[in-house]
Amino acid sequence: MLVVLGHCAGNIGDPVNRAILSFHMPLFFFISGLSSRAGGDKKESFIQYFWKRVRAIVVPQAVLFLINIAYYLLTRQRITASLIAKTWFNWFFTVLFICSLLLWFLRKTGLLSLWYICLPVTVVLMALTQVTGIQTVVHVETVPMAMIFYFGGVYCYGWLTQERNNRLENGWILLLPAIVICSYWNSPVMMYSNEYGNLALFAITSVAGIFLCYELAKRITDNKLVLWLGQSSLGIYVFHMRIINVLHAVGHRLWPAIENYSYPVYWHYFLLSLLVLIPLVYLVERYLPFLVGKKHLRTENMDEMNRPNPLTRGYKRL
Questions:
Q1: Which of 9, 78, 87, 135 is buried most deeply by CB count within 10 Å?
Q2: pLDDT in tens, 270-305
Q3: What are the phi and psi torsion angles at 293 (to 5°)?
């Protein structure tokens, strides 16, 4: 939802977008690390794991690639080799795929348990990418920073899932103004191009954003729509940008004098985008789930968790 809102806002200098950019992708990789730890299996062979990651990540990446190419053709943009390469190697899917493969290797070799080695090495690699300013088409320069938060999710899994008294129980809401203030003083964070501004401010906003969402999530655990949005996040990611483009085109034709990315107009586009995305992604997951990296409901294991349906009042048991 933060990704959709950020793209609706458009301008990276917008205060809302600036705050979102300061932590939302670190949060995404942190959650990916949590999910990987929860579903980890040391006995799984590399071939088995690899093809599962291809289905879950590369296939949606290919669908996004085809959607983008179709959009470029419809808008009569010139299709070049560099545009094809840039479109295929979507930074988020590419980096997530690399991180997941690295996790398998570290888990298989036993290095994952040596956090006091893995984390410092990753930090050093991140620092080297910042110093050298390297840029590659497959975004390997972004992998070390992503792995820091990916490792964070992996290593914090046990701590976050155990019952305990939380010291942030009453003061967690103060994390929000900390994010707003620090994101204001920092330059806009653009993880897709490996730019973070002041690393100290970025560290504050990313960690604060992760724990703000963690505390918020604990309080909306029973919200079935939010649960479904979380489980369907990659599907939403695949379709959302072009949905926004279509809504912008319609809005521009109906109200040509109104700037699509102006405040508070982009909030209307955000809500409209969700109204279109929710039924669209739901139907895709129901009838063409392979497009967003999922198995058909009939082939899912019966012991998997119940899947919430945002269009009905309850859960739909597999």
A1: 9
A2: 999 999 999 999 999 999 999 999 886 555 444 444
A3: 80, 25
- With cut-offs at 50, 70 and 90, classify the pLDDT of residue 160: confident
Write the Ramachandran bin of 10: left for phi over 0, alpha for psi from -120 to 50, otherwise beta. Answer: left
Ramachandran category for residue 269: left, alpha or beta (phi over 0 → left; psi -120 to 50 → alpha): alpha
Angle at 240 between CA 239 and CA 246, to 5 degrees: 95
Question: CA-CA distance, 97 to 139, in Å (whole number)?
Answer: 11
- In the DSSP assignment, the letter for residue 189 is P
H-run or E-run covering 307: strand 307-308
Residue 1 tokens, joined? 């939802």
CB proximity list for 127: less than 8 A, separation 6 or greater: none
Q: Give the pLDDT confidence of 230-263 residue by residue, as tens digits.
A: 889 999 999 999 999 999 999 999 999 999 999 9
CB atoms within 10 A of CB 132: 9
